[in-house]
Request: fold
Amino acid sequence: MAHPAPLNPEDIKAGWVAHEAGPCPVSPETLVHVRYEDGTDDAWTSPATAGWWDAEEPEGSNWHSRDGDSGIIAYRVVQA
Reply:
């Protein structure tokens, strides 16, 4: 799989934050817009729906790929 392009200055200005795996950086109640490495995205979604929250993991918070095929590469908070 090709690596996605890094965030550009406009993305950063719009509130996008790059992420390369690891714990979910927002609370479960926070609505986020996420980008996946396959180029797709989900807007106004919860961390659990985005593939971010997994009760089987320690702390219940870890970054996972959506449906096991495409990891989350960036996010921005839509509603805290």
Remarks:
- Residues 52 and 63 are 5 Å apart (CA to CA).
